[in-house]
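Annex B, item 7. Sequence and structure tokens for protein A, then protein B.
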Amino acid sequence: PIPPPIQTPSPPPVPQAPLPSTQISSVNIGQIQTQVQDLNRQINQLETELQNKNNQINELQNIATQKDAQTNQLNQQLATLQQSMEVHKNQVNQLNSHIQQLQTQLAEAQTQARSFSAENVQLKQQISPLQAKVNELTQEISAKNKRIEELKEPKPV
């Protein structure tokens, strides 16, 4: 806070040499009284202006104090938000790293799936001739079993 201004009193009027009593007349007294009244009015005006300026200074000091408090509060909020932002940045980095790992795993799985698919096609191609061979051998076994059964039967003599 700004310290209140130091109020300096107005300088005293410059003393004038006293007039000899013979020269003082009622006109001079009236003029002097008018001058004193004018000076008193000026003093009152200056004191009022001084009070107004002091009030303005106090208002500005209050505003400055409020602004300082607001600035401190905003600085605290900024620090909190920066900490929060740092936490979120770290989370984003972790998530991006995890996404990268998942994308790598997906690419590997897709490559493996294509390999399995090609291998599956090859195995299916191999199954067809093997199945034909199994059918052929099954027929041969059936024919031989039939022949064995025929041979087991007694022959008429």
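Protein B:
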Amino acid sequence: MAGLVWAIGSILLKPLARLSVSDFQDTYHTNVIGAALAAQAAQQPLKAGKGSMVFFSSVAATQGFTNHAAISAAKAAVEGLSKALAAELAPDVRVNVIAPSLSQSKMAEPLLMNEAMAKGLAQMHPLGRLGQPSDFAGLVSLLLDPEKSGWITGAVIAVDGGRGALAVNGRGR
């Protein structure tokens, strides 16, 4: 087996006062437990093939955004899991994380249905737009390719239109 890509997630946006224990548990289960179980299942085949794991996190794991308590906590746990696995599975398996911001996806459709809201969300990114699947595809391919990324493991790579690190013209952070 050459690679595992865990690109499953959720977007649960609620203020802390409205989050239930079940909200936290469901978000954690989908994002963290699912990733851990996938890693367990793929571990031996990936070791045999000197493969790579790529997990998806979120810029919300390291940035403070309103109404993101459940998803921020879960995605931070995905990053912690990935770093632990990078140490545990080295040198046979490389483990990395892509941390996107809001992107055009099925999961984000409810947030982007309103055109004015979608435009406003896009403008929160210094690059002035939302992410597209193609923005991540090349990086996934690179991280799975041992010839191109054979010395990269334990990395969390932001693909977020600058949202996590920059504030440009009032946009970003």
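Comment on protein B: The chain has six helices and six strands.
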